[in-house]
Amino acid sequence: MKMLEESVNKRVSLLLKDNRVLEGVLTGFDEYMNMVLDDVDENSENVSRKLGTVVVRGSNVVRIVPK
Amino acid sequence: MKMLEESVNKRVSLLLKDNRVLEGVLTGFDEYMNMVLDDVDENSENVSRKLGTVVVRGSNVVRIVPK
Amino acid sequence: MKMLEESVNKRVSLLLKDNRVLEGVLTGFDEYMNMVLDDVDENSENVSRKLGTVVVRGSNVVRIVPK
Amino acid sequence: MKMLEESVNKRVSLLLKDNRVLEGVLTGFDEYMNMVLDDVDENSENVSRKLGTVVVRGSNVVRIVPK
Amino acid sequence: MKMLEESVNKRVSLLLKDNRVLEGVLTGFDEYMNMVLDDVDENSENVSRKLGTVVVRGSNVVRIVPK
Amino acid sequence: MKMLEESVNKRVSLLLKDNRVLEGVLTGFDEYMNMVLDDVDENSENVSRKLGTVVVRGSNVVRIVPK
Amino acid sequence: MKMLEESVNKRVSLLLKDNRVLEGVLTGFDEYMNMVLDDVDENSENVSRKLGTVVVRGSNVVRIVPK
């Protein structure tokens, strides 16, 4: 997906199937939509957490919004 | 799917498995039905949001209605 | 599936995993049972809607009944 | 599965994951256990329906009982 | 799986994901763990049924216990 | 996985998706994490059972702990 | 994923789909995100356990946070 390539090194918001939202800088991804984010803020059921670097397994992803 | 090719650059409504509805201009898709939409309005449980560009992972898609 | 090929341009009823029922004219399908229907009436939890053309992702399909 | 080949043109009972039971004459199937049945009686939550010909997507099948 | 080959023509107990238990003589299986059983007794939520021959779709299987 | 190869003929604890725990001697496994265990004790919702030999379909496995 | 390669021999936190959290030293992984961790602390519904070495089936993984 060209859109994902253009989002590398930019901030994106990731919605996961369990309604978790990760916001961070996209630093890499592969064909399964496995993704690596840097400088991540996670929101899940109104709990916020700073996570730093996160690897997300693509099968959990619902949608990605470039910021 | 030829129908999806003909819908590129046109407005579509996307229903996802979690009952989220995304309406926007289809700008790209691949064989897994991963899709890129522009100028997206999202509706989920009566909450509306303007999201701009959105990448949707195909495994979440139920049906697509060209507008 | 030869049965699906013979149903092209005919009216079919599609049951999806979320109990949604789509009735329309089958205009195309592929090996994953992704399908395109025209002139669709959708029924879901007793709500009826006219949708026109619809692309259905095959992974949501339970059964197809040619009319 | 040789057992399925031997069941072609015979009456089978199909249990689906949503507890739907389809009984009909097996007229075809493929490697994914997609199946075509003729002369189908469907039972789901104590509602009976005559459906005629039905194409079932294999991913919904739990078990098949030749009659 | 050599263990399954050695169980052919022997009695096995099959636990499915919906907690259904099938006991019967294993007469065949394939690489997806699709299985054919003969002389099957099925137990599901304390209801017992004699089913004769049964084809089970492998994706429903949790575990197999040779008897 | 080299770790699984080194666990052959040793006792392991297997957690399944339905919270079932199987403890036994790992005698074989394949690329899908289908596994064969000998001398199995099963615990599920505080019910303990001796099962002897068990074939587990890999898609149900959450984690494996060598003992 | 280069990020995972760089995390080998380092401590990571693994979130699984059943909300189980495993923290330990990543000693190996494969293309399915199957992973081997050493010296694991597991937290699940406020129960903590020391597990030693653990093999996790990749299909259960939500996200990985290198520590």
Question: Strand order of the main beta sheet of chain A, please?
Answer: 4-3-2-1-5
Q: What is the general shape of chain A? A: globular
Q: What is the string of helix and strand elements of chain A?
A: HEEEEE
How far is the first residue's CA from the last residue's CA of chain A?
17 Å
CATH architecture assignment name of chain A: Roll
Regarding quaternary structure, how should these chains be classified? homoheptamer
Low-pLDDT windows of residues of chain A: none
What's the number of domains of chain A? 1
Per CATH, the class of chain A reads: Mainly Beta
Mean pLDDT of chain A: 96
Strand content of chain A: over 45%
Q: Please identify the structural class of chain A as seen in this structure.
A: mainly beta
From the alpha-carbon coordinates, what is the Rg of chain A to the nearest angstrom?
11 Å
Give the proportion of residues in helices of chain A: under 10%
CATH fold category name of chain A? SH3 type barrels
